[in-house]
Specification:
The chain crosses the membrane at residues 5-23, 115-133. Keywords: Membrane, Transmembrane, Transmembrane helix. The chain has 311 residues and is of the alpha+beta class. Helix content is 48%, strand content 19%. It is built from 10 helices and 9 strands. It has helices at residues 2-41, 49-59, 72-77, 88-108, 115-141, 144-152, 162-170, 226-232, 278-292, 296-299; strands at 65-66, 173-176, 181-184, 188-193, 196-201, 205-216, 235-246, 269-275, 303-307. Strands 1-2-3-4-5 form a 5-stranded antiparallel beta sheet, with helices on one face. A hairpin with a 4-residue loop joins strand 2 (173-176) and strand 3 (181-184). Helix 1 runs antiparallel to helix 4 (88-108).
């Protein structure tokens, strides 16, 4: 009995110390995010020498990929829902793993010093297993590409032919992060995320603009407890790009169901938001200005600071 109490005390102390360390880290990062948003608001963020150096280094390792190097199916099938924030279920998986570490320590009769490492190891394994099964389920049931492909082959008049899209993609260049994809094809723009995929003629893309803001790093389902609200309100600086479209007189692929509300049916225009990192957004804007023969300096001024959690 005394041995069980000792193990339990070590486990509780380890959990408390870990949570406090995570809280302090997130609090520091949250303050850094607030300062960055303030600089963006007053127009000091992108013009800094520090940011320009970071952008130059980033371009050396990430750039537009050629469409003929990777099949379009392979790229688009990777756009499945991927929750990059810790959800309530994944946090539960971590705690279950940590508890398993305690029981493992007791069953193996290890020393008290071995309990914290076993807890952390089992918590990590539990989290990774949860995310692996979740992603497998997403691939099987929720591929945006599969839904898009099904819509594409219905043979609706006025829509872009799948062969046209494939041809345009192979001659074009694309950029992708974990969830979003954007391709400057040959006369066609292809883009999408886990919500859906769409292709429009190049003339249909009227404008692009930056969006920056604070996005909560934890799922709001665990932010209900008032005592934890301040902790879970800490967020990270997130960047995305707004695509201003007109599909009135241009051919396009069928609109994904979740995007229909963003296109005004009477005017045929609308805005679609895709999430990329800040440097990818910069690269897309620069390429758009080059192709449209627009002033890149003027485009730098187009940035909106938005509260993503209220979208």
């Amino acid at each position: 009995m005394e041995e069980l109490i000792s193990y339990s005390c070590v486990a509780i102390i380890t959990a408390c110390v870990t949570m406090y360390a995570v809280y302090q880290y997130e609090k520091k990062k949250g303050l850094e995010t607030d300062k960055a948003i303030e600089k963006i608001t007053v127009g000091e963020y992108y013009g800094s020498e520090e940011w320009q150096k970071k952008f130059e280094l980033y371009q050396q390792r990430d750039f537009f990929q050629k469409g003929d190097e990777t099949p379009l199916k392979q790229v688009l099938r990777s756009l499945v829902p991927a929750n990059r924030r810790l959800s309530e279920k994944s946090i539960t998986a971590c705690f279950i793993g940590a508890a398993a570490g305690v029981f493992l320590a007791i069953s193996l009769k290890t020393s008290l010093f071995c309990v914290p490492p076993l807890m952390l190891f089992c918590a990590f394994v539990g989290y990774r297993l949860f995310m692996a099964f979740k992603r497998l389920g997403d691939i099987i049931t929720s591929s945006a590409y599969m839904e898009w492909q099904e819509n594409m082959y219905r043979g609706d008049d006025g829509h872009l032919n799948p062969k046209e899209i494939e041809r345009a993609y192979k001659k074009g260049r694309y950029i992708q992060n974990r969830n979003s994809f954007f391709c400057f094809g040959d006369g066609i723009i292809i883009f999408g995320d886990q919500t859906g995929i769409m292709a429009v003629t190049s003339d249909s893309l009227l404008d692009v603009s930056r969006v920056a803001g604070k996005r909560r790093i934890y799922d709001r389902s665990v932010a209900g407890l008032s005592s934890w609200k301040k902790f879970y309100d800490i967020g990270r600086l997130s960047f995305s790009i707004d695509l201003h479209l007109s599909v009135t007189d241009a051919k396009s692929s069928p609109l994904p169901a979740d995007w229909k509300g963003l296109i005004d049916k009477s005017s045929g225009t609308g805005t679609i938001n895709l999430e990329f990192n800040e440097f990818q957004v910069e690269m897309i804007m620069a390429e758009f200005c080059r192709r449209k023969k627009l002033s890149y300096e003027d485009s730098l001024k187009k940035i909106e600071v938005r509260n993503f959690d209220k979208d």
